[in-house]
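BACKBONE GEOMETRY TOKENS
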Amino acid sequence: MHAKPMNAAYSKTICALSIALAMSACGSESDENGAIYGEGGGGGDRYSSNNESWGEPGSAEDGGGEGGEVGEGVRPASGQLTAGRWRDVDNWAMWLKLMDPSGQWRAVTQSWGFMPVELVKVEVVSGQAPAIDAEVVLKDAQGAALWTARTDHAGRAYLFPSFFTGAPGVAGLEVEVGGVTAQVGADGEAVEIDAPGLAAPADTLDVMFAIDVTGSMLDEQSYLRSEMRDVMDRLEDERPDLTIRASMNFYCDPDDEFDVISNPFGPVAGAMDTLDAGASCGGGDYPEGVDEALDDALGHEWSTSARARVLFLVLDAPPHDDQGGLGRLARFAREASARGIKLVPVVSSGSDKPLEFLLRPLVMATNGTYAFLTADSGIGGDKIEPTIGSFEVEYLNELMLDYLLTQTGSGTL
């Protein structure tokens, strides 16, 4: 067992809840980061690399002491990168303050084609137990489907009447689960539904990794690989009762040597071999093929019944904001929600605020968790602190493992 970092016991307040105080505490990101992609937002000057950037797998005990220095050809020890996590659906009032029309973050979020300001929470039970992986459909007064989601390990689903437009006050909403319908109240309280006879999910967990392997990721790349391998090794040890399917994928930019290297789901060992083999590319400009990677993820054969489906997106730069890219992002939000694919970004050094306000709505849409590296480890480049409330600093591998165990019914959350 790993102990937590010395500074991990306290809760760390990043920004105040109000927009005005957030700007004064965190600084005006429009000044700090320039335009929509930032001016030298930390990941801008990319450079070519090759598969040697991944190094040869070595003994974890040999690498990565305090301060994160690793010798050539040595895999750093796991349990070094530090991180935090956040869920806006659990802090909805704070999110709505950030989306105030007088603040700067609403416009940044809208630039990606999203405006989640209406939320319907649903809790489903079947046979006095939480209904897991049950389809939940939100409908308007005429019976047209507005949003589809699947329940999580606790029987919860989060649905959005106007995710893309932010149109307020949609009247006459109802939710349907397993042939049972319930009206959505105007009080914001969760809709509780008892839907008897729902089938239990298969004892399956799908875990996908989509990793940005452009040059700016080199400062943390080998550490991230060690953390991912540690998480999957321990997951198999702790949940031998589950069928765990893994997929390891790499992406760059449409103008690079390759766009996406896509690999199907299979045994964990095979995915870890793919991780060790690695891939790399240049990058050139700041935006990368995030939208292409997410679109590729939808093309995989995810389990039709599962305890959880999780997509870890490891990145430090946003996608291009052309019409094709925005369309792929919108498709991912809607389809991943309907298929129960939970997005968990791992935001690395060199990111910017536009990336944050792209990923947080996508995380909401898929009932995932927003995870981000912190500077506490001393590893990697500068890290932009997210505009959130208090959070606990954790080791990244512990955070990821706890998330997967929680989604399958044995974690701490």
